[in-house]
C-alpha cells in the first residue's frame, strides 16, 4: 500500500480516523449492550463497570504516557495505539464469551485512548497551519459523536444480522487499516513543531484540567441520562431519540462554528469557553424546571450546543498556550476529561435514584457553572503568564 503524503487535510483525516477508531470499543459496548448482556450474562452494573474501566484506564494512560507524543514521533505513537486496539478488538471478537475478556479489551482500549488523544492533538498542531487549527480541532473533537453514530449503525447493520462479535472484528480491522495508512517516517512539520516547547506552570494546567473534568462530567451525564430523563417525564423513547439526534447535530455544528470563528480571530478562546459553559449551566437549570416537551427540547439543544460544544475550542486554547508541548499539556487536561467521564455519570445516576432527576440536573448545572468559573480564572492566569513571558 502506498504511503499517504501528509499535508494538513490528510493529517487531519488520519487523526480523526485514528481517534474515532480508538473510541469504537466503548461505544460498541453501549450500542450493542442488549446483545452482549444476553450473550455474556453481564447486567447493567457490569455494563457500567466496563464503561468506567475504559475511561479510568484512559485517564491513567493520558497521565503516564501522553508526553511521549511530544518527545517521540506522534505518528509512531498513534500507530502503536491502533495496533493495540486492533489486538484488543480481535480478542473480544474471538474470546469475548467471558466478561473478563471484554473488560480486558476495554482496559487496553482505554489506555490507548488516553495516549492517542494527545498524540493526535500534536499531529494537528504540527501539520495543520495555525490559521486553520480552530476548525481542525473542531472537526477532530467531533470524533466522539461520530463514534456514537457508528456504534448506533452497527446495531442493525452488523449486530443483529451477523452478531455483536463481528462488529468488534470489523472495528479491529478498521484500526489495522488506519494504522497502515499512517506515514512510516518523520516528515517536516509545521506550526508549533519549530518552536521550543513551552509548557504552562502546573497550577494552570491543573486548573484547566479541573475545568475540562467538570465540563466532561456534566456533558457525559447529559448524553447518558437525557433519554431516560425524558421517558421518566412522560415522553416516548422515540421522541427522546429524535431529541438526542438533533442535539448531537447541534453540538457538532457549534464545535465547527466556534473553530471557524476562532481561526478568523472573531472570538477569544477561553472567554468563549466560559460563555459556552455558562449557557450549558442555564440549559441544565431549564431541565430542572419542567418536564414539558418544549422545555425539554430547548434545554436539551442548549445543553448539547453550549454544554458540549466547548471541546474543540478548549483544546485549541490549550495547544496555543503550550506551543511545542501540545501532547504533554493536553495529556494533563485529558486526565480531567476522562475522570469527569467516569465520576459525572456515576454521581448523576446516584442522585437520580435517590433524589430524582431535577436534583441531578441541578447538580450538573452547578458543576458546569463551576467549569465556567475555572475558564475565567484560567484566562486571567494564562494571559498574565504569557504576557510576562513576552516581556522578558
Automatic annotation (TrEMBL):
Please name the SUPFAM superfamilies in this protein's record.
MFS general substrate transporter
For the keyword Protein transport, the answer is no
> What UniProt keywords are attached to this protein's entry?
Membrane, Transmembrane, Transmembrane helix
**Record field: transmembrane:** 41-68, 80-103, 166-183, 204-227, 239-257, 269-287, 293-319, 331-353, 359-382
Q: Name one Pfam family in it.
A: MFS_1
Q: Which residues form the Major facilitator superfamily (MFS) profile domain?
A: 6-386
Kindly give the Gene3D superfamilies that the UniProt entry links to this protein. Answer: MFS general substrate transporter like domains (1.20.1250.20)
Q: Which domain of life is it from?
A: Bacteria
InterPro entries from the xrefs?
Answer: MFS (IPR011701), MFS-Transporter (IPR052952), MFS_dom (IPR020846), MFS_trans_sf (IPR036259)
Q: Note the PANTHER family from the entry.
A: BLL3282 PROTEIN
- For this entry, the protein name equals MFS transporter
